[in-house]
Structure formats: structure tokens, C-alpha cells
Amino acid sequence: MKSRTWLAVILLALLIVPLLVAPASAAPAEAACGPDVTHIVQPGENLFRISLRYGTTMQAIAAANGITNYARIYAGSVLRIPCADTAPQPPVTVPPNPGGRGILPPVFSIPSVHIPPIVLDCRLLVGTSPLDGMAYGEQTFYWNPVPGATSYRVNVYNLDITPGRLVAVFDTPATRTNVTGNVGGPAGPGFRFQWEVQALVSDIPICTSQRYTNWRAAAP
Q: Going along the chain, which residue ranges are E strands?
């Protein structure tokens, strides 16, 4: 019985060992390119895949076959497959195809436009009133003009609403250097307020004054 078992083990080893020592099969080599090599385009193929198969470049294949558009090759066409160092590389046009896949739309150059810098003398922007107290309700704010500004904006902050919340914004054109707004009930409870004025150009704040602290009068 033991002799039969050993015989089976020996036969199994004789079958397995040749498989272990046999050399691995080599990967198929790429097809060779050359002046006399041709390829019939198959459905689904493109120049990139064909160039990889033959170890050449898309430019070399395009030059040898008069192709100016890489995207236009057709199944059944016969292409010459030269090596990359034996063919010139012509310019290739990419057709405009906005929204297409795999093809970029043409790039258009946009002429540069010179935009002069915005220059304001922000040192001139100084608030002049109120500086020693605000009314409860309608309050008029005054400041010095800043040449070049297209509008002004007054921001009002309530210091009794932590951490000093912006509670009112009043805009006016640059033809005026004062604006009147309601800082009563809509501005919230409390007494300590601050305001600042901004000089704007095309609705963009360019200069901001310091903040002026005022005590607001009690509600009537």
C-alpha cells in the first residue's frame, strides 16, 4: 500500500517539475515599421494605437500618408507605416469642434486692453459730522470730498451688539458729500455707535475713513 502511495507521489512530481522549470513564454513583439510596411485600418482603430503597435509615431504615419487631420482615418484604408526617424512631420490642423470629445476647439487671441489704475487720494476722506453724538432716528452724515470718486457709502455699526454689527448702509452719488439715514429702531438697541465713510469707483470701495464713535440719543 505504501509503495503505491510513493509511486503516485513520484509520478505527480514528474508532471509538475517540468512546468516549474519551463521558460516563460515571451510577450509578442511589436510589428516592425519600415518603408515597405503597410497596415489595413480596422474598425475602432486610430493613429495613436496604430503607432504604438508598430513602434513609430502618429506624425510619421500622417506624413507618409498625407493625413492632415488625425481624427479622420477610416476602416479599410491602407496606411504606409514608416519609422519615426525616416519621415518628416508636417503641421496638423485640428478642426473646430466646440463641445466635442477628444478634440480641442481653436484658441483665439484676445487683444490686450489697457485699463488705467484707479488713483484716489484717500487722505482726503475725513468724516466731519456727527462727531459728538447721534440722533435717534434721522441722522445726516458729512465728510470731505475725494476727487475721482463716483459715489460714497456710509456704514453704521452698533457697538452694543457684539462684536459691533453693521446695522445700516447709506449710499449717495459723488455729487454730494452728505447723506441722511435712519439710525433709530432699525439700527437696533443700545447707545454706542460708530460710522465710517467710503469712497467708491464703479461701486468698488477704494478708500475707507477711520471710524467715528458716537453715543446715540435715547428713543423718544
A: 38-40, 78-80, 127-129, 138-143, 151-158, 165-173, 178-182, 192-201, 204-208, 212-215
Sorted by where each starts, the structural domains of the chain and their CATH numbers stand as 38-86 (3.10.350.10), 122-215 (2.60.40.10)
| Type and span of the H or E element at 11 | helix 2-21
Q: Which amino acid is at 55?
A: G
Tell me if residue 211 falls in helix, strand or coil.
coil
ω before 88 within 30° of 0 (cis)? no
Q: Model pTM?
A: 0.49
Give me the tens of pLDDT residue by residue for the chain, a chain 220 residues long.
555 666 565 655 565 544 444 444 433 436 788 888 999 988 878 888 888 889 888 888 888 888 887 777 888 888 999 987 654 545 544 455 444 444 445 554 555 555 556 689 999 999 999 999 999 999 999 999 999 999 999 999 999 987 789 999 999 999 999 999 999 999 999 999 999 999 999 998 999 999 999 999 999 8
List C-alpha distances in Å: 133 to 56, 212, 218: 84, 10, 11
Taking the C-alpha atoms of residue 219 and residue 165, their distance in angstroms, rounded to an integer, is 20
- Please name every residue paired with 182 in a beta bridge, in sequence order, or none if there are none: 138
Q: Measured between alpha carbons, how far is residue 102 from residues 51, 72, 105, 106, 196 in Å?
A: 18, 13, 10, 13, 55
